[in-house]
Amino acid sequence: MTEFGFLRVCAAVPDIKIADVRYNRDSIKRLYEEAADKGIDLMVCPEMCVTGYTCGDLFLQPALMEAAKDALFELAEMTSGHGTMLVVGVPVMHDGRRYNCAAILHGGSIIAVVPKTHLPNYGEFYEKRWFESGEGISKSKVWENECEGGIPFGTDIIVELGGVKIGVEICEDLWTPIPPSSKMAMAGAEVMLNLSASDELIGKHDYLLRLISQQSARCRCAYVYASAGWGESSTDLVFAGNAIIAEDGVIVENRRRFFTEPTLVARDVDVEKLRNDRAKFSTFFDSAPVEDAYRIIRVEVGGVIDSSRKALSDKDVSLTVDPHPFVPHDEGKLREHCEEIINIQARGLMQRLHVINGRKAVIGISGGLDSTLALLVTVRAFDILGLDRKGIIGITMPGMATTSRTRSNAVGLMEELGVTVLEIPIGDAVKQHFSDIGQDPKKFDVTYENSQARERTQILMDVANKENAIVIGTGDMSELALGWCTYNGDHMSMYGVNASVPKTLVKHLVSWFATELGGEAARILRDIVDTPISPELVPSGSDEISQKTEDLVGPYELHDFFMYHLLRNSFSPSKTYFLSRMAFKGVYDDDTILHWLENFYRRFFNQQFKRSCMPDGPKVGSVCLSPRGDWRMPSDASSRLWLDEIRKLKETR
Q: Least enclosed by CB within 10 Å: which of 55, 103, 302, 528?
């Protein structure tokens, strides 16, 4: 495994000829040599690839079985001097019985042989005619005459390669109520291999993808699936050559089917992420402690997994790093995602209103993204509950730096939505406050800015008291992570509908509403999306927005990326920096990324006190900062470990 916990795996589909063992051996060899050249740690081939899966009654011929064994030993010898582990499908005779097996080869030897547990004997499948199930075979060995001490044989085997535990199952094993991979995962296996020969049927491929995705999610593992393809008999069936890699519930590689050339599908899977998830989600280890049921066979590693791959650059890994992990890239999925989030936000607010018998809500509307989203969600909640939209009191509170663009958008949107509109300028009240506390109104410092935020919050709270309403919070999760909110100012509300929505997603949610509403409301919403993010607290002397948030705290797309990998994956600053360089290549240089990474960690730790007393709000995704749920951190925790690591990154660049 590399320094950041990556293991390079591949699903390989060689072209084969039925019962032509020599041809198949050579085809596998060619793919293996290509895999070794690419620095692949682990290569898995399809079920019965040494002979072909569709041999039928030819499996009853001793000549075929003996040739398969000879080819297997030759393939094992080929792995000598390489770091790449090879797993191939082969028929094996053991104690007078025939088994459908996966053979694990490494360093010139056959490390272990795992027989198939569940044999399909329905529809187009007839495996029990030729093979026995490996169910219950434990602590057994095969080929004791050919190899000193024999080779471990059984369904109780997990192989450890470079510190990574690997389990093997074969085709039908995955399709059962309790797949062997489930038990192996509970015994510690982190990467699952499936050697398959699954024919193509209408709708089967989509079902297979869901099955693999769900199993990798349930087992919190990487899942590498290689299925028979070109060369298998088409007498009654067609095999398309599926090569699929999943990681923790996500299909990360899915090569096109029905190809005619040999194929390698490679991917670096993140074993560190899988381990962090297993440790984080404590119920994973509660299910069935079955460690003692398995033999752990440790393999001495060399070649591609040793120190030559310890120090990584972004060219050394084969994976795509999503720069916007909170935002789906598929337009259809994004729309579904947005609708679901909005429904969760609205449902949370509906429940709160129902419990308190509330019929009114107060929201501060600035003409920016966050308050716009909060208003739209509140309108949706009122509509579903059958409440009068006039019970939503939208208050725009222009101050010293409010521009005509944001003010007109705020008022225009409220009028289009049919809510109660109030405009309460805060200039005179803030100036009086400055006089009361001795603040120089020409000194644009934190007091100047925060006084405006607290004045606005006071207005919202007092109007809510007057109207027997609740104040709806507008701040988003990215602002909470950075502490980019005024304590007891915009930081405070009675229910924060945006509390677990990251900034990079807010604009997509507002755009979703624009599509739904249409007309003038849509025009206003699209202009709000295009408006630079700004607190509008410092006057510029013109009617243009000059105080841009991202100039002050950094790009939100970077901060959301950092936040996701800190909270969701528990990655170190070094690994987050490594991934950032890949995700934002050509967008931000290394100095920029490191600068804002340090800024993020410093602010994240220093601003915890604001999150410790944040208002209630609905969780909408896998990352959340609620002190009552996902994130419980002392406000006085030291950030030294993390900041020291970032400073070392700066020094060693």
A: 302
> Among this protein's residues, is 77 annotated catalytic?
no
Catalytic-labelled residue, pool 10, 49, 55, 116? 116
Residue 319 lies in a domain: no
- pLDDT, tens digit, 9 for 90 and up, residues 433-490: 999 999 999 999 999 999 999 999 999 999 999 999 999 999 999 999 999 999 999 9
Backbone φ, ψ for residue 551 (5° rounding): -70, -25
Structure tokens at 260: 């005619």
- Name the β-bridge partners of 225: 194, 244
* Cα dihedral 201→203→208→211 (10° resolution): -140
Please indicate whether residue 47 is annotated as part of the active site.
Answer: yes
Q: Please check whether residues 210 and 150 belong to one and the same domain.
A: yes
Nearest to 194 by CA among 87, 318, 284: 87
Segments forming the whole domain that contains residue 458? 331-652
Q: Is the pLDDT of residue 630 over 80?
A: yes
Residue 314, domain member (yes or no): no
CA 3, 6, 7: angle at the middle one, nearest 5? Answer: 125
Residues belonging to the chain: 653
49 as an active site residue: the answer is: no
Q: Number of structural domains, the chain?
A: 2
Residue 627 has pLDDT above 70, yes or no: yes
Residues 349 and 299 in one domain: no
- Indicate whether 154 and 248 sit together in one domain: yes
Strand boundaries in 83-156, DSSP class E: 85-94, 97-106, 109-115, 140-142, 151-153
Q: State how far the Cα of 627 lies from the Cα of 615, in Å rounded to an integer.
A: 10
For the chain, counts of helices (H) and of strands (E)? 19, 20
Q: Do both 31 and 103 map to the same domain?
A: yes
Residue 315 lies in a domain: no
pLDDT at 290: 57
Please name the residue that has the structure tokens 């340090």: 598
pLDDT band for position 149 (50/70/90)? confident
Same domain, 545 and 644: yes
Domain assignment present for 323: no
313: exposed, middle or buried (Cβ count in 10 Å: 0-12, 13-18, 19+): exposed
Strands (DSSP E) contained in 284-425 are 295-299, 361-364, 392-396, 420-423
Among 10, 171, 221, 624, the active-site one is: 171
> What are the tens digits of pLDDT across the range 550-587?
889 999 999 999 999 999 999 999 999 999 999 999 99
Average pLDDT of span 228-235: 91
- Residue 353's beta-bridge partner residues? none
Residues 392 and 272 in one domain: no
Could you say which of 47, 169, 247, 557 is catalytic? Answer: 47
Side by side, which strands form the sheet with 295-299? Answer: 250-254, 243-247, 222-227, 191-196, 164-170, 157-161, 295-299
Dihedral sign for Cα atoms in the order 123, 128, 129, 134: positive
Rounded to an integer, what distance in angstroms lies between the CA atom of residue 601 and that of residue 41?
Answer: 34
Q: What does 532-596 look like in DSSP terms, one character per residue?
A: PP----S--SSSS----HHHHH--HHHHHHHHHHHHTS---HHHHHHHHHHHTTTTS-HHHHHHH
pLDDT computed for residue 303 by the predictor: 40
